[in-house]
Amino acid sequence: MSHNNTQRNYTKALKLPKLESHILLGVVVGLVVFVLDQLSKYIIRTKVVPQDWDVIYVLPIFNINHAWNYGVSFSMMAGGGDMRRYMLIAMALALSAVVAWWLRSAANRLEALSYGLILGGAFGNICDRVVHGAVFDFLQFHLDRYYWPSFNLADSAIFVGVALLLWENRPMFLRKRSGS
Questions:
Q1: What is the pTM of this model?
Q2: Pick from 44, 89, 125, 154: most CB atoms within 10 A?
Q3: How many whole angstroms from its chain centre is CA 50?
């Protein structure tokens, strides 16, 4: 039996589902975001700013810092110890399952890209919570003494993914009417 026949029979025996190209796009984007997020956090945390709460002043409005977020956005829900940690992990996994389900029925490549960005970011932050007990943040913008809370690449990917979904699904009244 030739190599090609063996490979075809093996594939038939496994009955692997064929992924639509836009679903595959979402999966690949999610994996790339996850890897880049974890790699950037590792490099910043271990090589660039290895001490907690240290800061590198990059620009007059931008710093790289070493910060741990034990809560969610803007450090909300930061108290509560291990129970809070497990609750946040469970909530993030549940929401990620919903987003993964939506990815399966993505109507187009932009939706799939958006879901991939959200999933990659979510899993990047979930990984931090599982491994470290908190999410590592290192990007910090500020104007004078007014600081935006630190964030990371995963947070950025989630934000961009949600923004793209909002744009793609904006209400009809925001769309230009033809002829008016």
A1: 0.80
A2: 154
A3: 23
The yes-or-no verdict on residue 173 having pLDDT over 60 is no
Residue reference for tokens 């007014």: 146
Burial of 138 (0-12, 13-18, 19+ CB in 10 A): buried
Q: What proportion of the chain, given as a percentage, has pLDDT over 90?
A: 58
Is the per-residue pLDDT at 92 higher than 80?
A: yes
What is the Cα–Cα distance from 67 to 22, expressed in whole angstroms? Answer: 36
Assign 87 a pLDDT band (cuts: 50, 70, 90). confident
Mean pLDDT of the chain: 84
Q: Please give the backbone phi and psi of residue 177, each rounded to the nearest 5 degrees, phi first.
A: -85, 140
The radius of gyration computed from the CA coordinates of the chain, to the nearest angstrom, equals 20
Beta strands 135-143 and 146-147, pairing class: antiparallel
b/e code 100-135 from CB counts within 10 Å (16+ = b): bebbeebeeeebbbbbbbbbbbbbbbbbbbeeeebb
155 is catalytic: yes
Catalytic residue among 82, 128, 137, 144: 137
Quickly state the pLDDT bin for 72 (edges 50, 70, 90): low
